[in-house]
Amino acid sequence: MLYFRNSSMPHLHKYVEPSAPTTARQRFGLTALVAIFSAMLITLSALSLFFVGGVASKTADKIAIEKQYVLFENALRDRQNLMARDQLGLARWDRSVKYVTLRFRETYVEEELVSSLWHDFGHERSFLVGPGGRLLMSAWQDQVDFTQRTLADGDSLLALVDLAIARHNTNRTTIEGGYGQRPVQASQVEEIAAFGFIEIDSEVMIASAMAIVPDDGEVALPDGPPIILVSARPVNTSFIDDINSQLKLTNVTFDRHGNGLIPVIDVEARTLGSFSWDLYLPGRDIWPVVVPLTFGLCGVMLIATLVLGRYIHLLSVRLEASERRNRDLAMRDALSGLANRLCFDQALNSASERLAHAPFAVIACDLDRFKAVNDVHGHAAGDEVIRVVAERLKEAVGDQGLVGRTGGDEFVILMSAFRDRARLALLAQHIITSISRPIVLPDGAVVDVGISLGIAAAPDQGISGREIMASADQALYASKEGGRGRAFFAEDLDEAARNLAGHAAEAVNAA
Fold it and tell me: Is the keyword Chaperone assigned to this protein (predicted)?
């Protein structure tokens, strides 16, 4: 712009006489030219700002909408996985095979299965479905009906049962006396369980189904389809509040007949309803800033430009802060503040990729006597215990590793600072001592819990994240079997197995 004005003035003086009228016309023409140029510049700037504002608004809205969809769908999957993990201890049990599959005992079904699913986990509906779609038991809360009937074709419950049978057949194994099922970790329960939405008594429910199978091989399944345990929760206000407790979305609803944001589809691809909420659209916050600044630019271009730049920066900071909050929500366990399963799995896989240069160790943790706290003092007290345990674990580990909560009373630690047995043993003892300290609840009650640890070091007990995690879980199982409140190293599993076999042989000889 300066080059244009300095080059044009000599040109006018050279070819035009500087008479008064001409000078006035020259000033008028120059003024008009500058005004026109300024108007064009301001107009282009205003149009550019409107364009940038529109693009930023649409982009921000698009990103926000996509993240809200992902977070809601992840929350639904988490609830399905949690329901399946709740079922796992009851469905994978020799006693269940004995008193449900081999000899159907109604008192066992009522007192062990139905009571646990309702009182311990809040599964409002539960069912047992035998071969040929034969409904053996149905329950609402703890009220059990043993009237048997055959499920009709097209029943969404039957479709879910068929899917669970298919999952079982894929993982079925041959054991002494019959059949069993390939063992899986709780974190991989989706490999043996069937999830889905079903319609029961005209009510839409989220359900999980899995086969009743032996765990220790004391009994075996006969040939043929297994009995399937199904439990379900209604998609009602309580369920929506539970889902939204972490998401903090606005006005979340479920409509049986509306065309909402996320459709609810059953196993047979039938639409049962949809979830909706008021979408958070950060793009709307941009316009109250862009429009006033754009009009202000027409009067004071330089000032308006500076102010606009500042406000755009502030908006960008707000958007980035919002994105950081969303990322943190997706990677953190809301109750404990620890890393959730997604965050921990990513860290574990990353550590596995760097294993050649940076060995590491994994400590699987499970609280002892935690169920008693929930039973005696309520779930609010259990939540407080989880928070206190999380703080103590973070304090014990410090910046030497990552502490995560994988669900319920299960925690896991990724130690990246060291992996030698001596220091891991010291850390384990410190953790056991710390967690064993009494915990004072908000109402003044004092509770105490313990913790059992399973420790596995890479690459000795595994190379991939799944292998090392499986070793740590096996060590944790051995720790609990050995008396709880102690740590067990995966490298000692073989020796422990030999000792167990030796004791068994001595018992046989003595007999």
Answer: no
CATH number of 341-510: 3.30.70.270
Q: What is the pTM of this model?
A: 0.49
Predicted confidence (pLDDT) per residue in 255-284, tens digit? 988 788 999 988 888 888 999 999 988 887
Across 201-260, the runs of DSSP E, i.e. the strands, are: 203-211, 228-234, 250-255
Q: Is it the case that residue 133 has pLDDT exceeding 50?
A: yes
Residue 208 CB partners (closer than 8 Å, separation 6+): 80, 83, 84, 87, 193, 194, 195, 230, 231, 232
For CATH 3.30.70.270, list the domain ranges present in the chain.
Answer: 341-510
505 against 339, higher pLDDT: 339
Residue 380 to residue 442: CA distance in whole angstroms? 10
Distances (CA, A) of 17 to 5, 12, 21, 25, 319: 19, 9, 10, 11, 60
Mean predicted confidence (pLDDT) in 205-234: 94
**How many Cβ atoms are within 10 Å of 233's Cβ, its own excluded?**
20
First to last CA, the chain: 106
3-state class percentages of the chain: helix first, strand second, coil last, to nearest 5: 55, 20, 20
